[in-house]
Amino acid sequence: MTQSDVQVRALVLTQNEDKTVNAELRHDLTVQDLPEGEVLVAVEASSLNYKDGLAVLGRPGVVRRYPMVPGIDLAGSVVTSTDDRYRPGDPVLLTGWGVGEGHWGGYATHARVRADWLTHRPEGMTASTAMAVGTAGFTAMLSVMALEDHGLTPDMGEVVVTGASGGVGSVAVALLAARGWTVVASTGRTDEGDYLRALGASEIIGREVLSDLKRPLEKERFAAGIDSVGGSTLAGLLASTRRGGAVAACGLAQSSDLHTTVMPFILRGVSLLGIDSVMCPPDRRERAWARLNTELPQALLDTGVHTAPLADVQALAAQILAGQVRGRTVILP
Ligand code: NDP
């Protein structure tokens, strides 16, 4: 058997004439069926993100062409490479760059990708740990870095994390607590209080505490925030952010709408920091992954991560869109 005959197992999405989408676990593909790219990676793990849920269930706006192998994250080792930066056996990871959206992604045993999209996996970080982090955890770290770049430090007051039980939220709570912040976790699942406290949250508040706020300026409370839900929650958070504070906005699990006023910005100097993990430049990626390798608290890996096979992805996709998945899910091909 030559390299190009190597069997590939993959979850393949196809679109019907009526625009509905089918997901099928295929066992009959070979490496030759994979899209072009300089590096062939043997995928050891992928992960489940909100965006993967949208893709697998055929929701508009994620997948740009069919057939498509979803999975916006992957980690594994290099099989072959025509790019000098990567050699067979190198441990690598990939998040974003439109992989799993416009280029076949991580829900497969193999992926062929552009060398520019890959990141060397940090020393000692397993593929499973990299995918326990995945796009969600990487985004949480980019959000922490954005707050720090803004000059915010734990002694300035409380930080709030919205969507705290989700993937981005769980990692954000754990990272911030480990950095010494007093973390307030905003969640619709207040029964997850023990879990969030185990990650380091000092206080749990219901979603409605922020989303029900209606005035342009509320009582100043939070020095900083990481928001993965958008909508009225983000509006309420901006109105409650203290003078000179900042909110890193990275998600839209509640809504992509943002109805607010300029008051927090012009009367309190509050800043809204946008976080884009997909096109994040390579040097910032490497810095974020190096920090994740040393700062990721063990509590997250112990309580916030579970593992599922590729065959479970469709069921899990429905659960993550319904807000029922806690923490991070590693997918094994
Ligand atoms: P998850 O589904 O794991 O987490 C989202 C969380 O949001 C849920 O667990 C829930 O937390 C909360 N939530 C869900 N529905 C609602 C609602 N209607 N109102 C208020 N809160 C709600 O997803 P991820 O963590 O993977 O992603 C979170 C968001 O971040 C998504 O919108 C995703 O697209 C975005 N994202 C953006 C990235 C970027 O580069 N900017 C990268 C990665 C993700 P709880 O139960 O605790 O309330």
From TrEMBL:
GO MF assignments: acryloyl-CoA reductase (NADPH) activity
Start and end residues of each Enoyl reductase (ER) domain: 20-331
Pfam families: ADH_N (PF08240), ADH_zinc_N (PF00107)
Organism superkingdom: Bacteria
InterPro entries: Acrylyl-CoA_reductase_AcuI, ADH-like_C, ADH-like_N, ER, GroES-like_sf, NAD(P)-bd_dom_sf, Zn-ADH-like_protein
Protein's UniProt name: Alcohol dehydrogenase
